[in-house]
Specification:
The chain is mainly alpha-helical and 309 residues long. It has two domains: 3-131, no CATH class; 134-207 and 252-306, no CATH class. The protein has helices at residues 10-27, 62-86, 95-100, 105-108, 116-126, 166-181, 191-204, 210-219, 274-281, 286-302, and strands at 3-6, 30-36, 127-132, 147-148, 151-152. It has a three-stranded parallel beta sheet, with helices on both faces. It has a two-stranded antiparallel sheet with strand order 4-5. Strand 1, helix 1 (10-27) and strand 2 (30-36) form a beta-alpha-beta unit. It starts with a strand and ends in a 7-residue tail after the last helix.
Amino acid sequence: MRLLNFVANQVGIKRALLEDQHRILRDCDSIVVLSVDAFGRQGRHEDSQPVRSSPSGWFFDHNSALASFDALLAANRARLLGEFKSRVLMPPGSEELCRKDGLPDEVCGGGVRADWNEINQLVKKKLFFVHLNFQSPEIVSQTNVIFCGGSYGDKNSDCEVLPVDGARLTCETRNLRMRLESIPTAFGLSREESSDIRTFASLINHPKNICLQHIYQLVHGEITHDASFYQDASASCDETSPVEDGRVPARKHIRGRIFGDVILKDNSKPIKPFSEYCTSLENEAGEERVRFLKDAKARLLASPRYLSD
């Protein structure tokens, strides 16, 4: 099987797929594109913030420049993500935009014109796109259903104890996402920011992450990618447009399912209002919060029936 694996920005990938009369699309059986997106919450650099007190601040407004940069990144990011997640590559709106995206001459107007119908038929058939970001829902989580002597329930005396404090796990992961989203556009990371990123990467890499498991199977030649995969896809690798026959397949994947059984989660909340409970955890030391999340993953992997997929 001829497999091409990409870990790069979408602009470079789009160019690679289109150049040389889309040779890669024609020659490869499967194409894997993994987009690791650390884009934070837009608006971190607000124009209303005072200019930093420094001599350069009299001549250059850092916040305005960074806010403009964030806005430009957000617009370009949304456009390209839309193409890859829907698996429909769009022709450039003009030759000028085509050149700015660095697309090959045959696409921008020189030489043989691109056959977009053929290109997108091949993209639909062969491209597997995974978009990992700080809001990816496949992070380690725990089902709230308890296993009791061969069945599921919570009333028998022989029920197993859940391996992790589910309310705290929910809060700690929410707080982790909020901290990651608040990392500003900069050329360096603090020790705490680096620790949070490593922790998130660990939490999203687990056996029930359907997107990453599919990549593993493709790279090791165990399967060939086709549209039937999207019946079980989760958000980071989900099909957002109809498949080739014009129908959107019924999605079988349900978070909280254990070994094929559909199990509803317990939606009970802590005694305190949930947001207040989560806020109270922020007072703990960063090392303790990270230690809890790493320990939670280890406990859930040791008790796989409680690891939500």
